[in-house]
Amino acid sequence: MNTANQYLKAIYLVQRMDDGPAATGRVADSLDVSPASANEMIGKLEDRGLAEHEKYKGVSLTDEGIARAESALQTYCIIERFLANVLGVEEFRDEAQQLEPVIDETVAERLDTIIDREDQCPDCFDAEADACCHLAGTCGEEASD
C-alpha cells in the first residue's frame, strides 16, 4: 500500500529526473501501481493543495507538496541508511519501504543522530540510482558542497 507521502516522494523524484512535470505513467511505474491508482491518488493530492495536475502535461508539486516530499524523502533516507549501515540488513530497501509509513518524526530524528546525516539531505538522494549517494558511496564533490 502506497501512502500519500510515497506518492509525493515519487512525484518529486520524477520531476527532478525529468526537469519538469512528472508524467502520471512514470509515477505509477515508480510505485508499481496502475495508472488509474496513480491518477486517483494524484487527484487526492491535488484536493489537499499538494499537487497540480494538468492532463497530458503531468503533475507538479506545490511548494507545500515539495516540502512534504523532501521531508518524506529525508525520513526514507534515514531509515534506509540506518538499516543498511548500522544494522547491516541486506534487504534494506524493502524493509525501509515497509517501515516508512509507520516511523514518526520523533523516531526518525533519533535514528538520524545515529547515522550522522549530511546537512544537504535530501539533495544527496540520487533519483536515477534510487538511493542516497552516502549509502551507495557515490557522493561526489557536488554533494559535499
Write up what this structure looks like.
α2 crosses α3 (35-47) and α4 crosses α6 (105-115). This protein has 145 residues and is mostly helical. The protein contains eight helices and four strands. The radius of gyration is 15 Å and the shape is elongated. The longest helix is centred in the middle third of the chain and has 24 residues, at 63-86. Helices cover 60% and strands 8% of the residues. β1 and β2 form a beta hairpin.
| Helix segment tally | 8
Question: What is the mean predicted local confidence, pLDDT?
Answer: 84
Identify the overall geometry: elongated
Structural class computed from helices and strand pairing = mainly alpha
| Extended strand count | 4
Strand content: 5-15%
Q: Radius of gyration over alpha carbons?
A: 15 Å
**How helical, in percent, are the residues?**
55-70%
What oligomeric state do the depicted chains represent?
single chain
Largest beta sheet: strand ordering = 1-2
* Biggest sheet descriptor: 2 strands, antiparallel
Q: How many angstroms separate the termini?
A: 36 Å
Structure in a nutshell:
This protein has 145 residues and is mainly alpha-helical. The protein contains 8 helices and 4 strands, in the order H-H-H-E-E-H-H-H-E-E-H-H.
